[in-house]
Specification:
Helix content: 25-40%
Strand order of the largest sheet: 9-12-13-14
Order of helices and strands: EHHEEHEHEEEEHHHHHEEEEEHEHH
Number of strands: 14
């Protein structure tokens, strides 16, 4: 008979230092090496039933970081609720003041910055950058499409507004990274419902097309409301992003019926799949540009 893993109640679902558990007499060294626990980094363990996401990686890192450390960038976005911001195995972004130095730790990307008191906050047990500061760092550190794909959900969740971003931008007009942040913030749209929608919107605008509206409510001929992923209302052109396009599913047929009703209202609707977005963006750009030009748009 297989022995049931021994998990003291006080460590169930927890992340902890192995030496603390042993020194406090909660576990023996042999029990710590059992399948009840998973080693996350040197001397840091977790209940093996814990879902290993980036937030767990941050909690593990926090046990070995100085009190001045602040989670930032993609890690802060994940902590603030942007669930696609980073994976468990991705590097953790941490800010430390210039005067503070720590030994190099695996999987840790340290940014040496003196943050202002309004640039960080305590959030559900973490010390991380505020939503505005997080948006600034994402815009400065990442490609604009990926940055906007993480800032959009912050706006969509109501943690910040576009006005907040613009106000923050004005306070940093002389600082390095201002132009990158200004470019990203101008493209933010909190109505986007997925990162690929954000990426597609940004890539189209960077390529020279007019900025579309995300999830614009359009009433169809039968009075129903439909919300295309991207829309140019002045030209009655819309783009639908399809992560997976399965013609044999009920969802496909429901979507097709809605699109037919939208087309009957006078809209021109194009489709972009995840495969095309990754491998044939020039073709996507050409199709959308042609559609807009056919409705009167001129570059």
């Amino acid at each position: 008979m297989t022995r049931r893993p021994y998990r003291p109640r006080e460590l169930e679902g927890q992340i902890f230092l192995g030496t603390d558990a042993v020194d406090d007499g909660i576990l023996t060294p042999n029990q710590l090496r059992s399948r009840a626990w998973v080693r996350l980094r040197h001397n840091v363990y977790a209940d093996s039933r814990v879902n290993l996401d980036h937030e767990v990686a941050c909690r593990a890192a926090a046990l070995r970081l100085p009190s001045e450390a602040v989670f930032a960038g993609r890690s802060a976005a994940q902590i603030l609720g942007v669930r696609h911001a980073a994976r468990f195995e991705d590097d953790i972004d941490v800010v430390l003041p210039w005067k503070r130095r720590i030994p190099r730790l695996r999987g840790l990307r340290v940014h040496t910055i003196d943050l202002g008191p309004d640039d960080y906050t305590d959030w559900h047990g973490f010390r991380c950058t505020t939503p505005c500061r997080t948006a600034w760092d994402l815009a400065c550190w990442l490609d604009v499409g990926y940055a906007v794909g993480m800032i959009d959900p912050l706006v969509g969740a109501g943690l910040i507004t576009r006005d907040d971003l613009m106000d923050y931008l004005r306070t940093r007009s002389t600082m390095r990274g201002h132009l990158r942040a200004a470019t990203a913030f101008a493209m933010v749209d909190g109505a986007a419902q997925s990162p690929p929608e954000s990426h597609l919107r940004v890539r189209l605008v960077v390529a020279g097309l007019p900025k579309p509206v995300s999830q614009l409510p359009v009433r169809t001929v039968d009075g129903q409301l439909y919300h295309p992923d991207l829309a140019w209302p002045e030209y009655r052109v819309a783009v639908e992003y399809d992560g997976e396009w399965h013609a044999n599913t009920e969802q496909f047929h429901r979507d097709r019926q809605r699109l037919n009703r939208l087309t009957a209202t006078g809209w021109l609707v194009l489709h972009v799949t995840s495969v095309r977005l990754r491998s044939d963006f020039p073709g996507v750009l050409r199709e959308v540009s042609t559609a807009l030009k056919s409705r009167g748009w001129h570059r």
